[in-house]
Amino acid sequence: MLNVTQSKRVMPVKLTKAPGVERGAEEPAYGFWGAMAGFIFYWLAFAVPILLYGANALFFLLYTWPFFLALIPVSVLIGLIFSVLLAGRLLLMILCIGVSVFCLFWLVFAQLTGW
After folding, report:
1. What is the DSSP letter of 8?
2. What does pTM read for this prediction?
3. How far apart are CA 62 and CA 60, in angstroms?
4. Does residue 18 sit within a domain?
5. Which of 7, 73, 84, 113 has its CA 20 to 30 A from that of 96?
6. Can you tell me the distance from the alpha carbon of 47 to that of 57, in angstroms, rounded to the nearest whole number?
7. Are the CB atoms for 26 and 68 separated by under 8 Å?
8. In a domain, 102, yes or no
9. How confident is the model over 42-56, as pLDDT tens digits?
10. DSSP codes joined into one string, 37-75
């Protein structure tokens, strides 16, 4: 009986690259710009109730800050997701991120104020 090291049908493994795959080429960092857009739109959405309702909204936002603080990572994640899905389409990406973050922020604001 043959031992494993005495096998006669051992074939060497050849490593080849997949066709069309280049390791040197880098893609643009759409994810970073989407996350930044989500973060910027969060602060813009945070400013809208203050601009509309004045100091009363500021005191309300300061009173309910944990709810709105929880929206920061969600806004960044929304930006990241849209930037990956819409890579290369910058204006559409920014539009979708802005609308989504504003609607999410306004939804939380409306739920907390009881509208």
Report:
1. S
2. 0.72
3. 5
4. no
5. 113
6. 10
7. no
8. yes
9. 999 999 988 988 888
10. HHHHHHHHHHHHHHHHHTHHHHHHHHHTHHHHHTHHHHH
